[in-house]
Amino acid sequence: MPSCVLAYSGGLDTSVILGWLQDEGYDVHCAYIDLGQPCEDRDAILKKAHDCGAKSARIVDAREELCRDFAFPVLGWQAKYEGIYLLGTSIARPLISKACLQVAREVGANAFAHGATGKGNDQCRFQLAAEALEPGIEVIAPWRMKKYRDQFPGRKEMIDFCAAKKIPVKASIAKPYSSDENCLHISYEAGELEDPAVDGVSIIDFGMTVSPQQAPDKVEEVTIGFEDGVPVVLDGKRLSALAMVESLNKIAGRNGVGRIDIVENRFVGMKSRGVYEAPGMTALYAAHLAIEQLTLDRDTVHLRDRLSPEVAEMVYYGFWYCPKMDALMAFSREMQQTVNGQVTLGFYKGNVLVRGRTSPNSLYDAATASMEAGGSYDQTDAEGFLRIQGLPGRVLGRTRPRAY
Q1: What's CA 137's distance to the chain center, in Å?
Q2: Which of 72, 198, 319, 335 could bridge 314 with an S-S bond, Cβ 3.0-4.6 Å?
Q3: 389 lies in a domain?
Q4: pLDDT tens string 212-253
Q5: pTM tops 0.85, yes or no
């Protein structure tokens, strides 16, 4: 029989796909990629996969790798899709593909199956990553197959299928929205959120953050230490990447930090509405930017700012494994070598306040920058500087007068 690895969650969608793939003649190896999903009974998930006929089932703990090798390099770029989204879901998908392909090599499977729909971005991220890493892999996306959609036009048919096969699932016919969680963030979409006029905050039961209105009435401070642009110390304690994110999720989350509500442009061409919360990463983006302001020169920062939307777009679309991304990440690693120091942040009712920053690589010269006399800057030098800068304007002004 042909065999495949299924990116398996144990929920309704992948439970149905597991049973359907077996009906299609596949031996199915289930891989639950642990990225920090809600506290679930992992043993029960594996038992359920075995009980439902999986050839094998395993859990791959990829939480540390997600933070260290995916989220933090993107943080170094200050990359935000369309200026606001911190890419918490987007970053995770190429890692899921990588982990599933590693399982496929171990078990000798030549296909990779996932439960992403044909309308969303995840299908792109899964497939582009899988084909870049393993060009000969067969990618099975049931939601893009007409016979699958005909068999399961709605959740009722999926629930009935599970009942007939004695597959235990916890699902209801209607939900106000769907959510996807990892250690970086939680995303909320679909259901009632598909109406942009609906106040998403009022219907969502947020999992990482309290509302700003319910947050404490005093500022809570933390100090974050960076080495080569990577956050490594929190309040004097050296932490792993995962521990850094999880600690800041708790601290920033209890202060109402990190919620956004956006209408974004999907890679496939349509607009979608999403609500996200990412308290820890929101704090890290603010702290990282603050230390960069001390340690990076103007031209490097401005070049990074021009390229940052490009990096965010590539991550969002799914082009993680490609030469262009490799080159951009190499540039970032070089750029971040001087991004060292400490930033103190204050959290207050949804706000992130920079309270102070220090760095051994600081380019800030107080004497030169001061409005008072002193330092190495001679203000008379500005006369020649401005004469040179103004030369093109003066020439154009004589030949092409402007009305004013």
Answers
A1: 25
A2: 319
A3: no
A4: 999 999 999 999 999 999 999 999 999 999 999 999 999 999
A5: yes
Q: Are 101 and 246 part of one and the same domain?
A: no
State yes or no: is 150 an active-site residue.
Answer: no
Are 18 and 132 found together in one domain? yes
What's the CATH number where 49 sits? 3.40.50.620
In a domain, 183, yes or no: yes
- Active site annotation includes 93: yes
Catalytic option among 58, 122, 308, 332: 122
Nearest residue to 284 (alpha-carbon basis) of 202, 213, 364, 339:
339
**Is 69 one of the annotated active-site residues of the chain?**
no
- Chunked into runs of 10 residues, the chain (404 residues) has average pLDDT values of 94 92 97 88 89 95 98 98 97 98 97 94 97 96 95 88 84 71 94 92 93 97 98 98 98 98 94 96 98 97 97 98 98 98 98 98 85 76 94 93 85
State whether 233 and 287 are in the same domain: yes
Taking residue 23's Cβ as centre, other Cβ atoms within 10 Å add up to 10
- Token pair, residue 103, equals 């399982």
The parent domain of residue 243 ranges over 178-296+339-358
8 Å CB contact between 185 and 278:
yes
On whether both 215 and 237 belong to a single domain, the answer is yes
Q: Which of 15, 56, 90, 93 is catalytic?
A: 93
Please pick, among 13, 58, 304, 357, the residue that the annotation labels catalytic. 13
State the catalytic residue, choosing from 23, 160, 178, 195.
178
The verdict on 115 and 188 lying in the same domain is no
